[in-house]
Write a structure and sequence with these properties.
- With 283 residues, the protein is α/β, with parallel strands linked by helices.
- The chain has one domain: Rossmann fold.
- 39% of the residues lie in helices and 19% in strands.
- It contains ten helices and ten strands.
- The chain has helices at 12-28, 52-57, 64-68, 77-91, 105-112, 126-135, 149-156, 177-191, 206-214, 250-265; strands at residues 36-39, 46-48, 101-103, 118-123, 142-146, 164-168, 196-202, 221-228, 238-244, 267-273.
- Strands 5-4-1-6-7-9-8-10 form an eight-stranded mixed β-sheet, with helices on both faces. The protein has a two-stranded antiparallel sheet with strand order 2-3.
- The longest helix has 17 residues, at 12-28.
- It is globular.
- The model is unreliable at 277-283 (pLDDT under 50).
Length: 283
């Protein structure tokens, strides 16, 4: 519970995760049915990129700041939508020179909700959950809970809406985090087999990542990964997002966006699809 995302806000890993999130929300809210969204490890609502943590690491410079400086012509639509959401959040704090405020996943989710949709944001860190509650004070569409995200997957699924998206973005502080993740997913899918799940993970131990992705066999899954070609020593250099039960057209959109992102961020992309032959579990 020592992890603080403020040090890494807006970095290349956030870019990948949030491009995926914004596009999933767009597609899932296209149907005229209520949606439930669960953010298991929400962090705080947004981040000031000039504060002590983000300014110390300056990771946003090689991530969101690099993208915001690029021309929009020829940019994939999914990336353009994500950048528009980031710019809209930054504008809430007044116009300044360059990007200063970056939205965390709770803010991006909130921006994508329609009236009648429901959002539960879980955070265990006591300081971060207080910041998250302040961020959404008075907003009845957002239910902020100080809770263990792994327990929330079991307690809150299946939702009464019968349609849902779970964003799972653990800090990966524990040595057995991939094992906990696989167990939690199995339990969640038994309870809510038709839900959409977006799981972010770091790539530090290739063997652990391969074991995790192998555990997704038999599921309708799209796996997106980015590996930086050059990263400072000691910094995260690769990550992925696995999306279980993605909505229609999501794969096509990501097949366009991922190579473009990789070129813009000086990274190597990888996209693995198990959509054509797999089926969702029913037990």
């Amino acid at each position: 519970m020592n992890y603080r995302h403020g040090y890494h806000a807006g970095n290349f890993a956030d870019v990948l995760k949030h491009v995926v999130l914004v596009e999933l929300l767009r597609l899932l809210t296209a149907k005229d049915k209520k949606l439930f969204v669960l953010d298991t490890h929400a962090g705080v609502g947004g981040y000031d990129l000039t504060d002590g943590r983000a300014a110390r690491t300056r990771e946003a410079e090689a991530g969101i700041a690099r993208l915001m400086a690029l021309p929009r012509a020829g940019m994939p639509v999914a990336v353009a939508r994500y950048l528009a959401a980031v710019a809209a959040y930054d504008r809430k704090f007044g116009r300044g020179e360059g990007l200063r405020h970056y939205p965390g996943s709770p803010r991006l989710v909130r921006a994508g909700l329609r009236p009648g949709d429901r959002f539960v944001a879980c955070e265990l860190h006591p300081q971060d959950v207080l910041a998250l509650k302040r961020e959404f004070a008075g907003d009845r569409a957002v239910d902020v809970r100080q809770a263990d995200g792994w327990h929330a997957l079991k307690a809150l699924l299946p939702p009464v809406e019968r349609r849902g998206l779970a964003l799972i973005d653990p800090p990966f502080e524990a040595a057995d985090e991939f094992d906990r993740l696989a167990r939690a997913l199995r339990q969640a899918l038994r309870r809510f087999a038709t839900g959409c799940y977006a799981i972010w993970y770091p790539i530090k131990d290739d063997e652990a990542v391969e074991a995790f992705t192998a555990s997704l066999a038999g599921l309708k899954t799209l796996v997106l990964e980015l590996r930086l070609k050059a990263a400072p020593a000691g910094k995260l250099a690769a990550c992925g997002v696995a999306v279980i039960n993605p909505p229609w057209t999501f794969q096509e959109t990501m097949a366009e966006a991922l190579p473009w992102l990789a070129a813009a961020l000086d990274a190597t992309p990888a996209l693995t699809s198990r959509l054509s032959s797999a089926s969702s579990p029913t037990a």
